[in-house]
Amino acid sequence: MRIRLIFILKNKGGYVPFHHQYLLAQLIKGILLKGGKEEYFYFTEYNFSGLKGQTKISRNGLHFFSSRVTLVFSCMNKDFVDYFVKNLFDFPQVEIGNLTLIPESVEEEQIPVFENVTKFICISPIVLATPKFNDLEGKKFIHPETDEFSDLLYESTMLRIAKSKLFPEEKLKDFFKFQIVPDHSYLNKIKESQKKSARIYPVYDQDVKYEIRGYTFPFTLYAAPEVQNYVFILGMGMFTFKGFGMLDLANTDPTQRTREYKIENYI
Question: How many C-beta atoms surround the C-beta of residue 59 within 10 A?
Answer without folding.
Answer: 5
